[in-house]
Design goal:
This protein is α+β, with helices and mostly antiparallel strands. Helix content is 23%, strand content 30%. Strands 6-7-8-3-9-10 form a 6-stranded mixed beta sheet, sandwiched between helices. A 5-stranded antiparallel beta sheet has the order 13-12-11-14-20. Strands 15-19-16-17-18 form a 5-stranded antiparallel beta sheet, with no helix packed on it. Helix 5 crosses helix 6 and helix 7 runs parallel beside helix 8.
């Protein structure tokens, strides 16, 4: 389950750590942005604003629905934002629009307050890292990492120092002369990340960066990426289909649907309070049911369920988390039959079919306490795990 450890006590995105080491000057060389005399744009929370999408709209041909439909989004300096959504929701189009690879039909992209309308991709000061990282097989590791620096005309000595520093930061110290074909998948991913960071992008964008790696390696690299971005103070906009990856990496999660933003918030907020039934189901919560609220009780196909005090009366939907579906003797609750059991590592997902026409539901049980398929059980619901949806 996601936690709030990535944020300060005031709920602000984490800042890069102050450096007091003897190599602090070298650290600044990698992270400082050019200073300007203009006042920095800021978010509503007072944070410097690195990226702003203002009613960004993209249409492909005569498609009835825009790929991006008037999207408004801000990313604060040093913030990590991960964009999630089903296929076709617009998340990759959003990334390409920010990078300048996809023109907007209307709206604006602003970086540090500057309108990017006529700015070509190579002058936007952003870094891109794709799922297919496309390392140059004819260049060694150092040559790959230094590629962007060569294009920017960075002197040889400074280039070599920066490459060595970045390889140390990504966990590949001294690997400059290694052939990229000799690297494992995880090592190649680290080289691609170092290459993207080398030109000191003011915004780093990741498109399914760990999608080709096995689960164990992905989980380890997500932790390392978070630590690295925290040390460098990198501002990150990432697209991924992996919810666990996004919730572990991000300060803020954005869930997209049909070219728009369905919900934006901290990982913990989105997990605990999905905005609607779409978000709840996208996050994997299947226990969503139509309801009608009267007083502090909701009538549902599963019987009467408690709702929080002050819930508006009338029609709504309820989400019951699997952890809030308790199994009791069949005579003491909603009578159900166990139709399936699925091992999920930390628990067993128990699928339940109520007697009659009620929709099926899921309970989360410890392995030692999960009933067998075909067993008859009763179900009661914990009020703390019931969420009222629009």
């Amino acid at each position: 389950m996601p936690t709030e450890e990535s944020r300060t006590a005031a709920g602000e995105p984490r800042k890069p750590r102050e450096e007091s080491r003897t190599d602090a000057g070298e650290f600044r060389m990698l992270t400082e942005e050019p200073r300007t005399d203009t006042e920095e744009p800021r978010t509503d929370a007072g944070e410097p604003r690195m990226l702003t999408l203002d009613a960004a709209t993209v249409r492909f041909g005569r498609a009835a629905r825009p790929a991006l439909d008037g999207v408004d989004l801000t990313v604060a300096e040093h913030e990590i934002v991960c964009v999630l959504g089903p296929s076709g929701s617009g998340k990759s189009t959003l990334l390409r629009a920010v990078a300048g690879l996809q023109p907007l039909d209307s709206g604006r992209v602003l970086l540090a307050g500057g309108d990017q309308r006529d700015v070509p991709p190579h002058r936007r000061g952003v870094g891109l890292m794709f799922q297919d990282h496309q390392l140059f097989p004819g260049r060694d590791v150092g040559g790959n990492v230094a590629f962007g620096l060569r294009m920017h005309g960075v002197p040889r000595r400074e280039r070599d120092e920066r490459v060595a520093r970045l390889l140390e930061l990504v966990g590949l110290p001294g690997a400059e002369r290694r052939a990229v074909t000799s690297l494992s998948g995880g090592e190649q991913q680290r080289v691609a990340l170092a290459r993207a960071l080398a030109p000191r992008p003011r915004l780093l964008m990741l498109d399914e960066p760990l999608g080709q790696l096995d689960r164990t390696l992905r989980e380890r690299l997500v932790v390392e990426l978070r630590e690295l971005f925290g040390e460098l103070g990198t501002t990150v906009l990432a697209v991924t289909h992996d919810q666990g990856e996004a919730f572990a990496l991000a300060d803020r999660v954005v869930i997209m649907r049909d070219g728009g933003i369905a919900q934006s918030g901290t990982p913990l907020t989105v997990w605990q309070r999905p905005a609607d039934a779409f978000v709840a189901r996208f996050l994997g919560f299947e226990n969503v049911v139509d309801a009608r609220v009267t007083g502090e009780v909701a009538e549902t196909p599963w019987g009467k369920l408690p709702v929080p005090v002050g819930t508006p009366e009338g029609g709504c939907r309820l989400l019951v988390r699997p952890t809030g579906v308790r199994l009791v003797p069949v005579a003491d609750g909603l009578a159900c039959t166990v139709t399936a059991r699925t091992f999920r590592g930390s628990h067993v997902a128990v699928r339940l079919a109520p007697r009659g026409d009620g929709p099926r539901l899921e309970a989360a049980r410890p392995l030692a306490d999960a009933p067998e398929t075909g067993a008859e059980v009763g179900v009661v619901f914990d009020a703390a795990d019931i969420v009222v949806l629009p």
